[in-house]
């Protein structure tokens, strides 16, 4: 296999892995960002019966209904160090995706 073609395949694979990881991280990040303490979340969406969660994310549903789901890491205020670490990870993934895209573009220019 030609070196340029190998580099093209490698950079495309790395970019796909970075994008998939970024999408998963953004899902976790937004869930954590909009998490509310249990009392506030139950005031907005009362359809929740599990007592194990200290924080819930309230998600708008159809026709004014709201759905609550467990936020396993708590709220941003209850765990600021973890949220800052996840935010830094999301920023690093975005930078990695941009870098991988530029590198892939450079590999395509050599063909």
Give a verbal description of the structure.
With 111 residues, the chain is α+β, with helices and mostly antiparallel strands. The chain has one domain. 61% of the residues lie in helices and 13% in strands. It contains 3 helices and 3 strands, in the order H-E-H-E-E-H. The protein has helices at 3-33, 38-44, 80-109, and strands spanning 35-37, 55-60, 66-70. Strand 2 and strand 3 form a beta hairpin. Helix 1 runs antiparallel to helix 3 (80-109).
Q: How many E-type strands?
A: 3
**Number of self-contained structural domains:** 1
Secondary-structure class? alpha+beta
Contiguous runs where pLDDT drops below 50 for at least 5 residues: none
Residue fraction in strands? 5-15%
Number of helices: 3
- What order do the strands of the largest sheet run in, or round the barrel if closed? 1-2-3
Task: Report, as a whole number of angstroms, the end-to-end distance.
Answer: 14 Å
Radius of gyration: 20 Å
Helices and strands, in order, run as HEHEEH
Average pLDDT, all residues: 84
The largest β sheet comes out as: 3 strands, antiparallel
Share of helix, binned: 55-70%
